[in-house]
Amino acid sequence: MKAIVLASGGLDSTVTAAVAKRDGHDVSFLTVSYGQRHRIEIDRARDVARAFGVLNHLVLELDLRAIGGSALTSNDPVPKDRSETDREGDIPSTYVPARNTIFLSLALAYAETIGAALVYLGANIVDYSGYPDCRPEFLNAFETVARLGTRSGVEGRGIEIQAPILSLSKVEIIRLGASLDVPFHLTHSCYDPLASGMACGHCDSCRIRREGFLAAGTTDPIAYAEE
């Protein structure tokens, strides 16, 4: 069965891709270059695609900086050194308006074009930063949209949205990835990397990742600007 994986080059999407391959699907990658300040993740997605032997990897250019509204698509500062309690508060400035809605819509169009029946997304509701478009009710609603708004859905060949790590903690995601030989050293999670591409170590994404590897009792293979 053909499957599209929304591949960002990050830890979660890479583990998700490994799950899709484990399940025996013919995997294609879709990566969106949306004007994000951490553009290095696009290069990492390409690295992951090569490591997984994915031959069909589409990189779409879509400049969301024209819309703005996020620290990831503007020059606004990225929150740093927030505690777990802080991260459980308001939706942070790193939220990109309607990003998963946009990405899933693109993946849906791509899936319909190549005859894929599945779209895999690395959404997570446990160790995340409060993004509303990572919740199961959103994904369920989007699956309804996919059924009602596509030729595939109308003809009874619906496209399913798969989020296999949705309810896993970061520790569980890392352990799952390790069991599937995920190349963690190729992944990138930082929201505000240095010009060299090195992870800052202080943004929400870096902190969640580092805390996860520490709790999993294993070493994070990537380097950080400040240890």
Describe the structure.
- By secondary structure, the chain is α/β, with parallel strands linked by helices.
- It has one domain: Rossmann fold.
- It is about 35% helix and about 10% strand.
- The chain is built from 8 helices and 5 strands.
- Strands 3-2-1-4-5 form a 5-stranded parallel sheet, with helices on both faces.
- Helix 1 (about 10-20) crosses helix 7 and helix 7 (about 170-180) crosses helix 8.
- The radius of gyration is 17 Å and the shape is globular.
- The mean pLDDT is about 95.
Question: What is this structure's SSE topology?
Answer:
Layout: E1 2-6, H1 11-22, E2 26-33, H2 40-52, E3 57-61, H3 84-87, H4 99-114, E4 118-120, H5 136-148, H6 151-154, E5 160-162, H7 170-179, H8 204-216
Parallel strand pairs: 1-2, 1-4, 2-3, 4-5
Tag the structure with descriptive keywords.
alpha/beta; 37% helix; Rossmann fold; 5 strands; 227 residues
> Unreliable runs, pLDDT <50, ≥5 residues?
none
Strand order of the largest sheet: 3-2-1-4-5
Number of helices: 8
Quantity of strands, as a count:
5
Strand content: 5-15%
What is the third-level CATH name, the topology? Answer: Rossmann fold
Rg value: 17 Å
Q: What integer is the average pLDDT?
A: 94
What's the architecture in CATH terms? 3-Layer(aba) Sandwich
Largest sheet: 5 strands, parallel
Spatial separation of the terminal alpha carbons: 43 Å
